[in-house]
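Morning F.,

Quick status update on the modeling queue. The single chain you submitted on Monday has been processed. Sequence for confirmation:
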Amino acid sequence: MNRGPSSIVPCLRYRDAHTMIEWLCRAFGFEKQAVYEDAQGAVAHAQLTYGGGMVMLGSVREDGFGSFLAQPDAVGGRETQCVCVIVRDCRAHYERATAAGAQIVEDYAEKDYGGAGYACRDPEGHLWWFGSYDPWTG
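Structure tokens below.
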């Protein structure tokens, strides 16, 4: 099977997108690929990469698409989905995220189906899952 580049890219919005870009890079190991600002200096669009994957993000704004989104703190911390990232060394990633202040909601654990994983929230409450199990290889 030829996987090729990712065709599914999660998108998030943040109240303080500039600060969160720096935090996501420091805490989770993302790298900035692109950051575009609007005329007011807010993040209109940003692309952060991790290995062969990517997330896109921008500043919270009440535009057409933004009217469909709610920030976690506006809905009691609940989310209907989370970003899942495959990492090589899950224990080291867990320690890095914890040291950077990620709120751990599901502690690091070895999984029955293989690999290890943990779940956390970033400072604005978005839910993330990191694990070493690669569903492409089983």
